[in-house]
Structure formats: structure tokens, C-alpha cells
User: Fold this.
Amino acid sequence: EPEVTQTPSHQVTQMGQEVILRCVPISNHLYFYWYRQILGQKVEFLVSFYNNEISEKSEIFDDQFSVERPDGSNFTLKIRSTKLEDSAMYFCASWEETDTQYFGPGTRLTVL
Amino acid sequence: EDQVTQSPEALRLQEGESSSLNCSYTVSGLRGLFWYRQDPGKGPEFLFTLYSAGEEKEKERLKATLTKKESFLHITAPKPEDSATYLCAVQAFVGQGAQKLVFGQGTRLTINP
Assistant:
């Protein structure tokens, strides 16, 4: 069974601090995504990434957010200066056109 | 704008009591409709992908169907371990590119023993 992995499982940070969330997508997938889910709300799209560049981003994904694929396996989401409202579960997903979008277990981000 | 609405928001059944969950959608051009299961504090777990009206897929006690405007997830003789939130999502076909998923708010299913 293919698997997306994410680290850390839980991140606690102070408001204004930078955080980096890490993901290892499925190895033969080419499209990568970040979604987030605020407690009790819908899963919502943040950004998609293909061929080493952002393919699409939502209104949520402002200048405080960035993504990177620093090597052949990792995919990261950086939040430069966290706000209280950034507290949520962050999910990484990967996709290959003949397959489905698989999600990782998530990182719970708590901003104090 | 692509939209997904799921009903009911919550459903409580007795073990063995069959029922259906609904997912209504509007999308510019449907590439695929996805059903996921989500347990508390976990990531969405893939169940089914449906691509065209009339398509049906089954897995154990679950069966998903698709029409041009909605999808149903039928659950037959459920067990307590089927308790979870079931998410529906659509992926629009917009040519090349990493098409995102648009999710509904989910149906929280509880199966009482």
C-alpha cells in the first residue's frame, strides 16, 4: 500500500515564529499538495506543486507561506511568521494521473 | 466555483442498520469524485474514485455510486468499526496541471453496537 509520511506529528510554536512542516510523498508521484483542516471544518486546499514550481494556490496561501522540494524525496511547507489562526491540521498529499490522491497522517500545528 | 455539499452532517445508526450518505456537487468538468474515510486526528484514507455517471464501486460493506449531480455512499449492515467521518471530494478537469480536490464538510457516522 503506497504511503505519504509527514513529520512532525505535532508542532507547538509561539506566535511569530517560523515553522517547517515536512512530507515524503509517494515515490513515483509527480504532483504534490498541501491542505489544511481547522478543527471542525472542511479540508481546504492550500497549494499544488508540479515540475518544481507552484501550479495553483488558494487565497489562504499568502506571502507568509512557501513550499519547496529540496531534494528528490522531501516536500516542505514553511510558514514564516505564524499567527494564532494558523493552528490547524496540515495534510500533505501526492498524486499521479492514473492513481488517486493519497494523504499523509497530518501535522497538528498549535500556535500559542 | 466548484462546490460539494454532503448530507446529513451526522448520522447515528444501530449495528446492522443500512443507510446512505449523499454528496451533491457542482463542478466545471468532473475529472473524478473521491470518497475518503477520516478518523479523529488522522488523515483522509482513500476509499473510492468514480469517474463517470453510472459508475459503481464496492469495498466490503461500502458501495459508492455516481450520477451527473450527486454521489451516494451506501453502507450495508454496518459495524461499530465503520464509525468515522466520510468525506466526499471532486477534482475538476482543467487540462494539464495538478488539479486540486474540493471537499465537502463530511458526514460523521456513528454505529452503535
User: Anything to note?
Assistant: The mean pLDDT of chain B is 93. The radius of gyration of chain B is 14 Å.
